[in-house]
């Protein structure tokens, strides 16, 4: 019996390694091909000139002004979208869970609704709204943060809701209230410290989505990183691929950080409860 169990465990380990190897090749091969393409020099030689130009910001801004504009726009969009999402969503979800539990399903439905709407349909609906936004606020690409806040709602809501489900919010809030704390103090000093990892998850997912978004920006005639990369591909394919690869690696790093934060949180249960 023990021999059968050992053989079964050995086969399962072998199966896992084969699956991980195949998946690793499947995902890494395109990235390696992208990197190899960006290092092709004149005559097929190896050069890192594209990557050196990519990290040399003054030279990059002078050589590819549209790309630098797209990078600055996406950086601003990341900050604005993360701030808007957390400021609007976190107090709402906490308040609904504490004081209006009957509205929880309705809020969940509204937050998950953007997942069911194709991007092109969303843009058609947003176009008249953005006509007024352009009239009132101008045509800055930073106004895309309003649309991106809607797009990230499903992911941010799920992350924050999972964080709140992992703690006894009502008991913590009632304990703080019994000690004389007001609602702002309860949310800021009691609830938020206990859902730090959920907030980080929501922020990381927001960053990844904003950096990779193309359809809404392109159809609304705004320039962000992905739109600039698309335009750059017509004049400098190597730089376009290098920027795309750098954005992909940044997204991978963010997801890895997200995984590490979640793992650290699971290893220290109750440490954040104060």
Could you characterize the architecture of this molecule?
This protein is mostly helical. It is built from 14 helices and no strands. The protein has helices at about 1-40, 50-55, 55-65, 65-100, 105-115, 120-135, 145-150, 155-165, 170-180, 185-190, 195-210, 215-220, 225-230, 235-265. α1 runs antiparallel to α14 and α4 packs across α7 (about 145-150). The longest helix has about 35 residues, at about 1-40. The chain is globular, with a radius of gyration of 23 Å. It starts with a helix and ends in a 7-residue tail after the last helix. Mean pLDDT is about 85; it is low at about 270-274.
Offer a concise description of the structure.
The chain is mainly alpha-helical and 274 residues long. It has helices at 2-38, 49-55, 57-63, 65-99, 104-116, 119-137, 144-151, 153-165, 169-178, 183-191, 196-212, 215-219, 225-232, 237-267. 80% of the residues lie in helices and 0% in strands.
Low-confidence stretches at least 5 residues in length (pLDDT < 50)? 270-274
Query: What's the story with the biggest beta sheet?
Result: none
| Beta-strand residue fraction | under 5%
Mean pLDDT across residues: 85
Radius of gyration, in Å, reads: 23 Å
**Content-based structural category:** mainly alpha
How many angstroms separate the termini? Answer: 49 Å
The helix/strand order is HHHHHHHHHHHHHH
Task: Supply the number of helical segments.
Answer: 14
Number of strands: 0
Q: What gross morphology would you assign?
A: globular
Fraction in helix: over 70%
